[in-house]
Structures are given as C-alpha cells and as structure tokens.
Write a structure and sequence with these properties.
Elements: E1 5-9, E2 13-15, E3 27-31, E4 34-38, H1 45-52, E5 57-60, H2 67-73, E6 76-81, E7 86-92, E8 99-106, E9 109-117, H3 120-144, H4 146-150, H5 164-167, H6 171-183, H7 185-201, H8 209-235, H9 238-268, H10 278-309, H11 312-334, H12 336-340, E10 346-353, E11 357-360, E12 367-370
Parallel strand pairs: 2-4
Antiparallel strand pairs: 1-10, 3-4, 3-5, 6-7, 7-8, 8-9, 9-10, 11-12
Helix pairs in contact: 3-6, 3-7, 3-11, 6-8, 7-8, 8-9, 9-10, 10-11
Length: about 375
C-alpha cells in the first residue's frame, strides 16, 4: 500500500525568461537537484555555463529542433544522471512552451507534480497583512481614538502624534495589529528559508564565497531575529512591560538594518541581479534601506531630546519617524515582488515509493535503469 503526502516545494524550480527568438532552443541545466530552464539560443555547455553563471551539466532536449517545433509535436524528453541516480521526465504541451508534466525519480522515491501556482498570491499573503496592519492601526487611532492616545499626563508637554507603541496598545488597534502581523509570519518563514537556499544555488562563482556565505547566514539569522522581535513586541506592549517593549522595539529596528544589508548584498552577488527585474529590485532595496538608515538616528535623537531636554516638538518628530520607519521596512520587503515575478514557480507534488522504472535517454548509446 502506497504511503504518500503532499508538500510544497518552492526551491527547485526557477524559470528564467529571456526575450523570445525565432530559433531558440530549450536547455536543461542540471546542478544537483537544482533545475533551470532557459529560452536562449545556447549551442553548447560552455555558453550555458556562462549564461547561468555556475558549473553544471547541460543538455539539449532535441539538438537541432526549434522550441516552436517541439511544442507543435508535443514531444517528451528524458534526462538522466547516473552519478546521482536522479532522472527527470518532461512533456511539452500548449502554445506557450510551458511544461505540463514533471516527474523526478530519486533513488526509490518518485515525485509526481500535481499542479503549479505562481508565487504572486503567496507574496500578497506575506506583504499585504503587515502593510494593512500599519496603515489601519495608525489611521484608526489618529481619526477615531485621538483623545485616548493624547489625553493623558505627558511629562514634557502634550505632543500631537503618539508613538506606534501607544497606538497598538489601544484595544481595537491591538487586535487589528496582532491578527494581521501574525497572519504573515508563516509566509515570511517560508520566504526566509527558501531565499536562503536559493542564494546558494544562484551564487556567481566569480564572487568572494566566504563573505557571501557569511552574509547569507546573516540574512537568515537576522531575518529570523527581526521576525521574532516583531512578534514579541506585538505581544508585550507598553501596558504589559514598557521597558521590555522598548528594548525589543530597538532590537527589532537594528535587526531590520542587518537584514537589509545582508539581503541587498546577497541579491547583488547572485543571479537575482539580472534583467528584467533584478536591477529594479536592487535599486528599490537601496532606496528603502537608505531611507530607513536616515530615519533611525533621527528617531533615536528626537526620543532622547524629548525625555532629556523636554522638547515637545521632538516627540512629534520621533513619532513620524517611527511611522515612516515601519513603512520603509514594509517597502523593503515588498521589493521581493520583483525577485519572484516571472522567475519562480511553486510546485505541488505527490511523493510515493517507486517500484521499478526504466528510463532511457535520447542518446541510444547511453541508458540508465532506476530500481
């Protein structure tokens, strides 16, 4: 009796699109369990290496057949690697050259693709909730609950704008904030882990590998820290423990800086930095990171001026910088849209044991049998 389970793999299918040409060829580049599909007119392995920026095994499905004819014939091809005992079967169909069927055989396990989805819905689930949490909480507090957040004993005079901590301390705003923030946490975890793995796969070997590995691990660890402290300060507010809340808020801010730097660096050192959207994403990261870095010292300075010198206007500056800092943080994460647009496909697969499958390549002189 077969045992099976369905799981989401968003790591091993990256579709790199390029401008269409009349005589383009479909290449299959194999690097372990990392697969890349291109539509460039690449004639040999060296060009494929240069195109993908990494050493790998490259194959042509049909050596001299344009992709249009492959689609018209609806042919299928099988590529096997005897060294890794991993085979992949692909069948072409449709009018746009998409792959309609994909099976990966690894050892005694068979992974059958059930369906695919684009990453855009997943991105929306990870980006929209925190954006709505910030915008709705601040707007509702300033419009409907302004008296509740401003009519209390200010030690150094009443300010016009409350801090975000005081806003999410209100009952309604707190509920909205917590629900929407924690709703996006699973997606952020998926993004962190999958991007951490893809950074290694897409690393360009001409770069400094040691520095890159350090920044890649910093991306993961600091990103997890940023997510943890965001959740912690959402639970422990000013009314629970003001001192701990403030400490966690500043740790969250500095984790954000570390995450921005590591993410931007890794993006630049990998194949993420490619046309058509790679450079746009990189520029957006630089812009949001710069704005965030400008806001942070202004925020800290204005906070100290209010509590040390009792300058009332400085608290308003602190609050505005806090609002902007949150929006810049969300905007930086929003640049991920251009990292996944037309580049990533989420594959839902059925995993089951393999009894016996015989796979042959197009080359009659090479045959592989997988048991």
């Amino acid at each position: 009796m077969f045992r099976f389970w369905i799981f989401l793999i968003c790591l091993n299918q990256l579709i790199l699109l390029s401008p269409a040409v009349d005589t383009s060829y479909r290449l299959w580049c194999y690097t372990g369990l990392k697969y890349y599909i291109g539509q460039e007119q690449r004639q040999d392995a060296e060009e494929c290496h240069a195109f993908f920026g990494m050493k790998n095994y490259c194959y042509k499905f049909v050596a001299s057949t344009p992709i249009q004819e492959i689609i018209k014939l609806g042919c299928s091809s099988v590529i096997c690697s005897g060294l890794r005992n991993t085979c992949t079967k692909m069948e072409f169909g449709g009018t746009n050259g998409t792959i309609s069927y994909l099976t990966i055989i690894q050892g005694k396990t068979q992974l059958i693709e059930l369906f695919r989805i684009t990453p855009i819905p997943v991105f929306i689930l990870g980006f929209v909730p925190p954006l709505c949490a910030a915008v709705l909480s601040i707007s509702i507090a300033l419009i409907f609950h302004n008296d509740q957040i401003s009519n209390y004993n200010w030690q150094c005079g009443r300010a016009k704008f409350p801090s975000l901590s005081r806003i999410i301390n209100l009952p309604l705003e707190r509920i909205i904030w917590q629900i929407l923030i924690f709703a996006h946490v699973p997606i952020r975890l998926l993004e962190l882990v999958s991007t951490f793995v893809r950074y290694e796969r897409l690393f360009e070997p001409t770069r400094n590998k040691k520095v890159f590995d350090f920044m890649r691990w910093a991306y993961l660890l600091v990103g997890l820290g940023e997510l943890f402290f965001l959740g912690a300060l959402s639970i422990i507010g000013e009314r629970e423990n003001t001192q701990i809340h403030v400490i966690m808020f500043y740790i969250f801010g500095f984790c954000g800086i570390g995450f921005f730097i590591a993410s931007t660096y890794c993006h630049r050192q990998t194949l993420y930095y490619t046309k058509p959207y790679g450079k746009l994403s990189y520029r957006l990261k630089i812009i949001f990171m710069t704005c965030y870095l400008i806001c942070l010292p202004v925020l800290v300075t204005s906070f100290l001026l209010y509590w040390r010198l009792c300058l009332t206007f400085s608290y308003d500056i602190f609050a505005v910088c806090e609002y902007l800092g949150v929006l810049f943080n969300i905007g930086f994460h929003g640049s991920t849209f251009f990292d996944v647009k037309d580049k990533l496909m989420l594959s839902i697969r059925l995993v089951e044991p393999l009894e016996q499958t015989i796979i042959t390549t197009n080359d009659d002189s090479q045959k592989n049998t997988v048991l």
